[in-house]
Design brief:
This protein has 214 residues and is an all-alpha fold. The chain is built from 9 helices and no strands. The termini are far apart. Keywords: Membrane, Transmembrane, Transmembrane helix.
């Protein structure tokens, strides 16, 4: 049983890896990418904020797979995508407000930083609550085990694979490239934050109204 479980975890990790390197990464551009480029962050903070976003995604994958294992049935048919989209849209709008308020004043208090970090986790979690085809397969596999613990392990292994490439591209790559971009736009942080907040709000409204699917 242990060998079967380890093989399943390896398989779900590889599925997550291929998923994270493809469509998943591009859906992060108008959300995570905008949040990172709109703030005056160093390379380390960029990596940490990316991790918080990815931790939210992993949390959602683990939750869905665990519940699927517990109830012995995939949650895909039970989830209402319109509700999941509304939660996702609400988190985007919440983060847009935080980003706009951050750009209103010079500097940023530790409280605002914590709120933005929480917002990033929330966006990642809400994004992960909307099952894609690979995650639906993981949930079906978790349901077949009939165990919440096994479902949790499958969800975590899928999530670990899914975040590898986005963490490298956004956390490391954008941390380096973003520093160059921000150094050229230094002195325009307020405008940059407001443009980012406007983009997030637009994406949030579009997702909530069903005009856009990420």
């Amino acid at each position: 049983m242990v060998e079967v479980l380890l093989s399943s975890m390896l398989a779900t990790f590889i599925i997550g890896l291929s998923f994270g390197a493809g469509a998943c990464m591009f859906t992060c551009i108008p959300t995570l990418g905008v949040m990172l480029l709109s703030q005056d962050l160093g390379a380390k903070e960029t990596s940490l904020q990316t991790w918080r976003f990815n931790a939210g995604r992993m949390g959602a994958y683990a939750l869905l797979a665990t519940v699927s294992g517990l109830v012995g049935a995939s949650l895909v048919g039970l989830l209402d995508m319109s509700h999941a989209n509304l939660i996702f849209a609400a988190m985007l709008l919440f983060s847009a407000v935080l980003l706009w308020r951050k750009g209103r004043v010079a500097g940023c208090s530790s409280r605002k930083k914590k709120q933005i970090r929480a917002g990033l986790f929330g966006i990642g979690f809400a994004m992960g609550l909307r099952p894609c085809a690979p995650l639906a397969g993981v949930m079906a596999a978790a349901a077949a085990t009939g165990s919440g613990a096994y479902g949790l392990l499958l969800g975590l292994s899928f999530g670990a694979g899914a975040i590898v490439v986005p963490q490298l591209v956004f956390g490391y790559g954008l941390g380096r490239a973003g520093g160059e971009i921000r150094s050229q736009l230094r002195g325009r942080q307020q405008q940059l934050s407001r443009v980012g907040a406007s983009v997030l709000a637009f994406v949030g409204i579009s997702v909530g109204m069903g005009w856009l699917s990420l």
